[in-house]
């Protein structure tokens, strides 16, 4: 069995924002109990809050900067580790 896709997925997750990972996991779990319409509305709301900076979440812009502008892919996530992301800050 080819496990290359698993290895690539793990590499990607290790580079990703810890806060984004926790937000994604939370909403995947919630989405299991929701209709497609509810999921799409929730996704729109999440995206809007992130882009408009409605709450203190600058990792979206940090990721864009590290990929598109400095092109060094040296992300400075805040917080920098999954253990530091408290459920209270998740939407």
UniProtKB/TrEMBL annotation:
<dbReference type="InterPro" id="IPR032259">
    <property type="entry name" value="HIBYL-CoA-H"/>
</dbReference>
<comment type="pathway">
    <text>Amino-acid degradation; L-valine degradation.</text>
</comment>
<feature type="domain" description="Enoyl-CoA hydratase/isomerase">
    <location>
        <begin position="2"/>
        <end position="89"/>
    </location>
</feature>
<dbReference type="Pfam" id="PF16113">
    <property type="entry name" value="ECH_2"/>
</dbReference>
<dbReference type="InterPro" id="IPR045004">
    <property type="entry name" value="ECH_dom"/>
</dbReference>
<comment type="function">
    <text>Hydrolyzes 3-hydroxyisobutyryl-CoA (HIBYL-CoA), a saline catabolite. Has high activity toward isobutyryl-CoA. Could be an isobutyryl-CoA dehydrogenase that functions in valine catabolism.</text>
</comment>
<keyword id="KW-0378">Hydrolase</keyword>
<dbReference type="GO" id="GO:0003860">
    <property type="term" value="F:3-hydroxyisobutyryl-CoA hydrolase activity"/>
</dbReference>
<comment type="similarity">
    <text>Belongs to the enoyl-CoA hydratase/isomerase family.</text>
</comment>
<protein>
    <recommendedName>
        <fullName>3-hydroxyisobutyryl-CoA hydrolase</fullName>
        <ecNumber>3.1.2.4</ecNumber>
    </recommendedName>
</protein>
<dbReference type="GO" id="GO:0006574">
    <property type="term" value="P:L-valine catabolic process"/>
</dbReference>
């Amino acid at each position: 069995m080819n496990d290359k896709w698993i290895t690539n997925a793990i590499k990607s997750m290790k580079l990703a924002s810890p806060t984004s990972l926790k937000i994604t996991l939370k909403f995947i779990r919630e989405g299991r109990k929701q209709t497609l319409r509810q999921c799409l509305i929730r996704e729109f709301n999440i995206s809007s809050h992130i882009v408009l900076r409605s709450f203190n979440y600058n990792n979206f812009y940090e990721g864009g900067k590290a990929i598109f502008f400095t092109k060094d892919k040296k992300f400075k996530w805040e917080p920098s580790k999954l253990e530091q992301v408290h459920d209270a800050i998740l939407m």
